[in-house]
Amino acid sequence: IDGVQMATKSVLARGAVKVIPEDDYRASMKVDMKMQGQGLSALVVEAQYDGQKRDVYLMGQGRNFKGFTESFRLGDADISLEWGAKQIELPYSLKLDDFVMDKYPGSMSPSSYESHVTLLDPANGKNEAVRIFMNNPLEYGGFKFFQSSFDRDEMGTVLSVNHDPGKTPTYLGYILLAIGLILNFFNPNGRFGKLARTRYDRSAASAVVIFVALAVLFTAQPAHAYAGYGDDKMADLATAVDTVKKINYEYAENFGSLMVQDQGGRIKPMDTMAMDIVNKLSGQTTIMGLSYNQVVVGMASKPLLWQKIAMIKVKHSKIKEILGVSSDKKYIAFDDVVDEQGQYKLATDIEEANRKRPAERDEFDKELIKLDEKINIAYNVYTSDFMKIFPLEGDAAHTWFSPGEAMKNFPQADVTNITRILQQNFSGLSEGIEKGNWTTANGAIRMISGYQKTKGADVYPSEFRIKAELCYNKASVFERLIPVYLLAGLTLLGLIFGRLFKPTLNLDKAQKVVLGILVLGFVAHTINLGLRWYISGHAPWSDGYESMIYIAWTIILAGIIFARQSEFAIASTGILSGIALFVAHLNWLDPQITNLVPVLKSYWLSIHVSVITSSYGFLGLSALLGLISLVLFIMLGKIKNDETKRQIVISIREATRISEMSMIVGLSLVTVGNFLGGVWANESWGRYWGWDPKETWALVTILVYAAVAHMRFIPKINSVFSFTVASVVAYSSVIMTYFGVNYYLSGLHSYAAGDPVPVPVWVYYAVAVVVILIVAASKNRNMVSGSLKNTNTAEG
User: For residue 15, what pLDDT is reported?
Assistant: First the structure.
């Protein structure tokens, strides 16, 4: 469908070789595909008839192309062969009236794109205007038309077509399978029910009370590294730092309390934008001991100095090579991206990367696009274009403008008022830096705030909304929870191991204290997730960072669910959740709140992603309990005391029981999540399954854990040790699904494109540690008697 031209009354369906005989004859073909040039392919067909043979080359482009007909004569038969898609005539037509792309304000990023078409069906008297956009297909006459892509000039659109008469039975099958998995948890005779009723007797005599300081949650400060700088720029750096450090912290915080409109049109505190800017540029929230508000004020007030400071983080070595920057430098300066003539060094590469479809971009393209975004952000700060702080009264679109834009577009009375405010802020800033008197500058901030409340009253956030966002920024709850979760989990785990050598140790009170800490952390975690949801306007699991903090939340939830079953579950979830939050705050995950791409603007984001991602927490708990069991297996060979050995065996069986229960929950969630993903894909793209790497590895994870969960039915591997090893090794499929696909394979769900990416060194060490543990534990594998099936189903 192109321009305003009428669409052909046909669609291409996936087909195979079509034999069209003109006479009655028999032909047998041997088919072999060979690539013939880039983007083209051919079938080499050996046609046999009446003792004669002939090789025929059929040119085409596979399933999306009708192909060319090759006619030839073999003996007395006229044969026509065609390879490609089958053409299906439709009883109606579509005419493209307009293609509309909505971009986020102030950016080239599409917020949504849609096709305005006219449905023409004369036979049924149909002449209807229809809008087709992402997650909103046109369904008519048994066919669905989905928004797929568009022409580069934005004058034409591409729609994908689907005909699925089996949708109802497929969805019904999904529902029945999901109900079956859910009911399994409530079946007293099912595996989960039997495991839940299993108990192991322990000796108990004395009590131990531990106190873990909850003040860590409110007093621990997040750790931030300093950005790296080149030696040749230290003089400029010293000058800039000396100047910026004179900016009063209180003034910078007042500056942060101003409202600003971001590129997505959201009105938010300048504090949020400043934090996002500094984090986006450097991967930090502080630089050289300066708060993000101080840094942004410095960049806007002294741009020439800050353009020489290496504070923009760059990862890809090829980009550094293009810029002429040393490969060992982690940061570049704004001045590094322009040559002596003031030309943008990356312009050609950026243009080429943007032309590619997202699925075709490799790691270099994606890193290039990210860096280009950083450069644009820095430029907007240096020119103050980011400061869209002045609302235009009466504007129907509620657009806010930067100072420069306001001077050009506002009525003269408003221009005069804004000029007076800006002059006071400028003089007050100079007075504050030179004399330390910030009264005038703070007064200017109050005047800007008053102007915003008066002129932008229709969209100005409520005081509660503003305070909630400022609280979210300053609290840094997710970072502060890292030591809380780790300390609580490690403390209880240490006491559990201590009880092995002193069986009379009673951990009931210790368990309750740690559980209380984790519950308080979980409440804080939940509130902060809710705040992020409220602030961003979408479910907080739409990107790598958000999914990690959500996984950490589900891990703690798993611990609370199994708290009454075992203290192992509580200790393990504390440790694992702390690790998950730590990983979330590593430099390679971006914590800033960003706009959603069009395809994610769907309620399915909340449903599908939340379910399938939550499974990682339960499966992670199963793996960690497996690691603990391996350590206990190793200890069995070192202990001579029979009572201590008995306690260790009980601990192994208990950990295995909880591990299997957690695995069942995780397997059920990832399976239902995959069902939901198939429904979302069908509703958005017209297909349930596309062999995308993420989809494929999610299926691999289901198959792996389904095999592990049913190991007890195979006599030769029906043992506690086998299950323990399998529960640890199986988690590698989850790691591959979550991290490996995202950063090593190309697809709709991935963040990279399959180019060689250095594997972190710690991965090799982690694999080595696991292998060593398994080998060492295998020596004592027969010391825990009984099969997995019998051991874990005997009620006590």
Answer: 36
